[in-house]
Design goal:
Bound molecules: adenosine-5'-diphosphate
Low-confidence stretches: none
Distance between the termini: 59 Å
Helix content: 40-55%
Strand order of the largest sheet: 2-1-5-4-3
Number of strands: 12
Structural class: alpha+beta
Number of helices: 12
Order of helices and strands: HEEHHHEEEHHEHHEEHEEHHHEE
Largest sheet: 5 strands, antiparallel
Radius of gyration: 29 Å
């Protein structure tokens, strides 16, 4: 068995370096990784990071196995590798293997960003509450009018925290269940109708008329989780009412698609359309990120948590569905949910 064959069996990019620091072997994974044939070249022309080059030198000089971080950017992405530098005493050489740890690093970064975001979101109403408590104890102690006003604001801030905590719980439950395929047979038109009825006080507050157009003449059944689907349409219709035009209208349509290529079969498409200010296209790709808001101030003023669309996206993923958003500034937005259709038979 040749050294080449052994290196080819290693699934990670691997290089073998001789005592004069030249590359003597390179497996196919390393060929993809470095993009060119390095055999015969000095290792410093392939790897320009001093920490790794120093380690190669040290291991060639007799140091034990060592791991070093190696950073590179590929196709506009910053990647992090753990490079394992191991001596091969019989050949007086070293073997380098490159393990991509970027997903792990990114997950760690996302976790800490998430904690920072949640802390910030909770701190804002908490700071307001502490401030009003101070005021009620001090300057506003004997002012019944101010007291009533401040208590109203405090009530609003406490409700905001409540909504945030319940959205966080929903998000974590939905994430936990994402791999569990829902199996109940759900009548979509009924779910949507129930949601619209429940949201009618919110619609009335903003004088918004919610209209429906259900054009599917056949069954509207999907394999689903009723509560979660109700949450999807609640979040979308509530957003359309909140961000749509005051005194305007929201149109909810349901139609059957005979063939959806992504499902290799029929689907049901629900559209929630408003005639509000719309969303600048540059934001569309990021709307379903947690805590992403187009207009921070407006979202908060309307009681938003910034988690609604993240929850929507996870639930739709769990149902193997698709979410598409279209919007034209000044005209309004449309949210398309497509779910694979199941027949009851
Ligand atoms: P929020 O709790 O802030 O409403 P969402 O996750 O539901 O959070 O929505 C994220 C952001 O997307 C909102 O802050 C808002 O800027 C924007 N958005 C959502 N739906 C609409 C809509 N129908 N029209 C305009 N902007 C919208």
């Amino acid at each position: 068995m040749s050294l080449n064959e052994v290196l080819q069996a290693v699934p990670l990019p691997a290089l073998m370096i001789s005592p004069d620091q030249r590359v003597t072997h390179q497996n196919d994974a390393a060929l993809d990784f470095f993009g060119s044939n390095l055999v015969g070249r000095h290792v410093a022309t392939a790897i320009r990071q001093p920490a790794l080059l120093e380690t190669v030198e040290a291991v060639l000089a007799g140091a034990p196995i060592t791991s070093v971080r190696y950073l590179m950017s590929k196709l506009g992405r910053e990647l992090t590798f753990d490079v394992h530098v191991a001596p091969v005493p019989s050949e007086t050489s070293v073997i380098l293997t490159f393990l991509d740890v970027s997903p792990h690093e990114e997950a760690g970064q996302m976790r800490s960003d998430f904690v920072a975001n949640v802390s910030h979101e909770l701190r804002t109403p908490l700071t307001a509450l502490s401030g009003f408590i101070e005021t009620l104890r001090g300057p506003a102690r004997d002012d019944p009018e101010a007291r009533a006003r401040f208590l109203d604001i405090m009530d609003g801030e406490a409700n905001r925290m409540n909504r945030l905590v319940s959205d966080l719980l929903s998000l974590s439950r939905v994430e936990d269940m994402e791999r569990l395929r829902p199996t109940d047979v759900i009548e979509l038109d009924q779910v949507i109708q129930t949601v619209i009825t429940a949201l009618s006080p919110a619609a009335k507050d903003r004088r918004v008329q919610v209209k429906t157009e259900f054009t599917s003449d056949g069954p509207t059944t999907v394999a689903g989780d009723r509560d979660q689907l109700a949450q999807v349409f609640t979040n979308l219709i509530e957003n359309a009412i909140k961000y749509g035009r005051k005194g305007g209208s929201v149109l909810v349509t349901l139609r059957r698609l005979d063939m959806v290529s992504a499902f290799k079969g029929p689907g049901l498409q629900i559209t929630v359309q408003d005639n509000g200010d719309g969303i600048d296209p540059k934001h569309l790709g990021r709307l379903t990120e947690r805590f992403y808001r187009v207009d921070d101030h407006r979202s908060r003023a309307l009681g938003g948590t910034g988690l609604g669309l993240a929850i929507v996206k996870h639930i739709i993923n769990r149902h193997r569905g698709r979410l598409r958003i279209e919007s034209t500034l000044g005209e309004g937005s449309s949210f398309f949910v497509t779910l694979p259709q199941t027949t009851t038979s």
